[in-house]
């Protein structure tokens, strides 16, 4: 059965300290996150472009949200993986896997954010 929509609706990255996590992601990826509160749930949304590839997502702090370096892995697009890894370390994160080739599909690396989440990086060059 064919579907005519993207299977991933959005993603949520659990955080313990929203301010620290926002500072990390805004610096490392050069974006401004949009804060939102829904009762006890606090979210900070990544910028999104309609009709572009990729899924929207947010940082989220609330009951039941626990950061992890195990399980589902989200890959962020990075125009320069080496620079993104450098910024990760500057902001208190760690590089888990250095930049490596995935052949014709480009390059990947893996980092650990300030909250304890493993995050993948992907670039074409």
Automatic annotation (TrEMBL):
Gene3D superfamilies: 2,3-Dihydroxybiphenyl 1,2-Dioxygenase, domain 1. This is Glyoxalase. InterPro entries: Anthracycline_SecMetBiosynth, Glyas_Bleomycin-R_OHBP_Dase, Glyas_Fos-R_dOase_dom, VOC_core. Residues 7-124 form the VOC domain. It comes from Prosthecochloris marina. It comes from the Bacteria. Transmembrane segments: none annotated. Pfam families: Glyoxalase (PF00903).
């Amino acid at each position: 059965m064919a579907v005519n929509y993207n299977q991933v609706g959005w993603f949520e990255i659990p955080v313990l300290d929203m301010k620290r996590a926002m500072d990390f992601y805004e610096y490392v990826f050069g974006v401004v996150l949009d804060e939102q509160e829904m009762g006890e749930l606090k979210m900070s949304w990544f910028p999104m472009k309609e009709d572009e590839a990729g899924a929207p997502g947010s940082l989220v702090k609330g009951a039941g949200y626990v950061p992890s370096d195990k399980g589902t892995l989200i890959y962020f697009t990075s125009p320069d993986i080496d620079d993104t890894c450098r910024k990760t370390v500057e902001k208190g994160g760690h590089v888990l896997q250095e930049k490596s080739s995935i052949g014709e599909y480009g390059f990947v690396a893996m980092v650990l954010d300030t909250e304890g989440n493993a995050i993948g990086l992907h670039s074409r060059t």
